[in-house]
Specification:
This protein starts with a helix and ends with a helix. The longest helix has 21 residues. The mean pLDDT is 89. Helix content is 68%, strand content 0%. The chain has one domain. By secondary structure, it is mainly α. The chain has six helices and no strands. Helix 3 crosses helix 4, helix 3 packs across helix 6 and helix 5 packs across helix 6.
């Protein structure tokens, strides 16, 4: 189950109001590791959509994540407490 600080970071756009996404994630019991990886894929989706000038969608972003070996890099880099922005930059060599 994700820790509160991870959920607060992931759902930072919710502010103080009720967050449906946060409630769903709590019910799913997804781990911090899985949740941070999903956020990395979301960043890839955003970045790649910008490069291509169109929304590439979640399916294509996930496909790229695995085809380019980012999942392996993620497994090598991830440590408990790391945030998705930091992990993504390390994966992309930024």
């Amino acid at each position: 189950m994700p820790h509160k600080e991870i959920l607060d970071d992931i759902c930072s756009n919710c502010g103080e109001k009720y967050c449906t996404l946060k409630e769903i994630l709590l019910k799913l019991g997804i781990s911090d590791r899985e949740l941070e990886q999903l956020k990395c894929i979301e960043i890839l989706k955003y970045d790649e959509s910008g490069r291509q000038g169109k929304d590439i969608g979640w399916d294509n972003a996930t496909k790229l994540w695995f085809e380019r070996g980012y999942d392996k890099k993620y497994r090598e880099i991830y440590k408990d407490g790391m945030k998705h922005r930091e992990i993504y930059k390390m994966i992309m060599g930024e």
